[in-house]
Amino acid sequence: MDFTITAKHTTLTDAVRKHAMKKCEKFPHYYNSINKIEVIVDGKEGGQLSVEIIASAEHNRLFVATEKGDDLYKCIDLAAHKIERQISQRKEKERNDKKHADSGKQ
């Protein structure tokens, strides 16, 4: 899995990098076809921060979450939680589609 973290208009500490990596390394456990994760941290004027997480999976599936706030760690946590929800919803949909496809065969 390829993991990239980028900062725009701000600097990142090693602790922030480790925190983002720790939160995002769980995604392949939920959906094993994820092959690339990008975390983009953007510092705006006035101290407003935004975090965008993009998880790419096979077959051009994208999971994107954006969170804005003052606390960088909280933004990373909330964006990661949004991605986890999107992944679980997608996985549930795929499971339901398989069940319906199998029930039609006899």
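the 2nd protein, sequnce then structure:
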Amino acid sequence: MITVISDGAIFVNCTIREPVTIGCGCHLENSFIGPYSSIADGVTLIDADIEHSVILQDAKVIGIQQRIVDNVIGQRAQFKVAPQCPKALPFLIGDDSQIELV
């Protein structure tokens, strides 16, 4: 297993389970970086857990309360929790549909 952590990456209260690759200039805080994850240069990961995933350059993942598994997050993408208020669920539901909200 090979782990690569580039210079300039900042880690605050993080757990890293190898193997991982973490690029230059990343800011990782209060996060779990699981095995087989690759984090490109300039990524911000705050209050989030990932494993078996790829996060591309300059993406931001902030405040996701569930583990992110088996995903690819694109360059400059922003993945964060939407504000809670107001909470509305717009739907267009077809005939014979079944919906379960969790």
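The chain is about 0% helix and 35% strand. The chain has one domain: 4-80.
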